[in-house]
Design a protein that fits this description.
Length: about 90
């Protein structure tokens, strides 16, 4: 993690084009599904997405990822493959 923004979103230095949009990312002990938008996640659900600056971000819909996940600047992020979601087969 490079920094935490004012909404509690954790911003990485990983370019979005390096992320599988149907994949997962591991942040600390948390495995998060990559979403295209916040609206794809349920209220209070942690998620990964590519932010407006083009970098991978870790967020919580309607919440603060830093508080919910207990993470801060310097947390390690690992990208991993995940089988296609049911509605994408």
């Amino acid at each position: 993690m490079v920094y935490v923004d004012r909404f509690g979103t954790l911003v990485t230095n990983i370019p979005g084009q390096r992320i599988d949009r149907r994949g997962t990312v591991r942040v600390g002990p948390h495995d998060l599904v990559v979403h295209l938008t916040f609206a794809e996640a349920g209220a209070g659900e942690p998620l990964a997405l590519v932010g407006s600056a083009g970098m991978l971000e870790i967020a919580v819909r309607d919440g603060r990822a830093d508080a919910v996940l207990g993470l801060s600047r310097g947390a390690k992020v690992t990208a991993a493959a995940l089988p296609a979601r049911k509605n994408e087969r």
